[in-house]
């Protein structure tokens, strides 16, 4: 999480939950669209959550 730099320290817990759930929902859709061939790269998750 925050200590590892995966989630920005700014924002409250509710905002972080929305960001994480939105990311997972999007990743789930892409996974379904690719028929299960490939997973989201952990580096991509870090880039998405690092936005301010």
UniProtKB/TrEMBL annotation:
Source domain of life: Bacteria
InterPro entries named in the record: Tet_transcr_reg_TetR-rel_C_sf
Protein name per its UniProtKB record: TetR/AcrR family transcriptional regulator
């Amino acid at each position: 999480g925050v200590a590892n730099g995966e989630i920005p320290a700014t924002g409250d817990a509710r905002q972080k939950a929305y960001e994480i759930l939105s990311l997972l929902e999007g990743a789930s859709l892409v996974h379904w669209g690719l028929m299960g061939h490939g997973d989201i790269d952990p580096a991509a998750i870090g880039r998405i959550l690092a936005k301010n």
